[in-house]
Amino acid sequence: MKIMNLSPEDIEKESFAIITRELSDRVLDPEQAPIIKRVIHTTADFEYAYSMFFSPGAVEQAKAAIRGGALIVTDTQMVYAGINKNAAGKFGCEVRCFMSDEDVAAEAKRLGFTRARASMDKAEKLGENIIFAIGNAPTALIRLREMIDEDGFHPKLIIGVPVGFVNVITAKELIMETDVPCIVARGRKGGSNVAACIVNALLYALDDKRGR
């Protein structure tokens, strides 16, 4: 087997070319295709070509939110670390994760909640100009659904891609049932890397220089 000596940029270009060829029998929505392909690029899992759910207009609404400098809130430090801060910063978007905050830890302990749930409560106080990138904690999605139903909370976008077995599928379905724009990986698959790459795909669709 021949080894290809390529630059990082050329490796990515060739990877996407391979993905496009292998998806040749799958017609993707032009707005959704860059996101789905980047998820496949991140995971090497072509099942995402069939399992990704986009609410009507979600991609355009997400791009508008980014152009408007939306706050990007994550449920793990891994999602936070994976998001391209330079690209986000070009649009005035700050990326935050509250999971390690002392007040979040204290509130979670006091109420017997997960930190992910408590961090959603903290985020809600910052207004609705928020994109949530949830890659690990179904409890974060469940809490967001409660906030939508009980408080009329309406963030700009929810990326719901937690991975796992307990409450994961149900939590994703709860978000897909709302009128809040969302991008969801149906089923058990997902993860922090998937959440981060979806955010990056949206950013790169608006700035192919990636904030450089």
Description:
This protein is an alpha/beta fold and 212 residues long. The protein has one domain: Rossmann fold (3-Layer(aba) Sandwich), CATH 3.40.50.10230. The protein has eleven helices and six strands. It has a six-stranded mixed β-sheet, with helices on both faces. α7 packs across α8 (115-124). The longest helix has 15 residues, at 8-22. The chain is globular and about 60 Å long. The chain starts with 7 loop residues before the first helix and ends in a 6-residue tail after the last helix. The model has no long low-confidence stretch (mean pLDDT 94).
Features:
212 residues; Rossmann fold; globular; alpha/beta; 6-stranded mixed sheet
Topology:
Elements: H1 8-22, H2 33-43, H3 48-51, E1 52-54, H4 58-67, E2 71-74, H5 77-82, H6 85-90, E3 95-97, H7 102-111, H8 115-124, E4 130-134, H9 138-151, E5 157-160, H10 168-176, E6 182-185, H11 192-206
Parallel strand pairs: 2-3, 2-4, 4-5, 5-6
Antiparallel strand pairs: 1-6
Helix pairs in contact: 1-2, 2-11, 4-11, 7-8, 8-9, 9-10
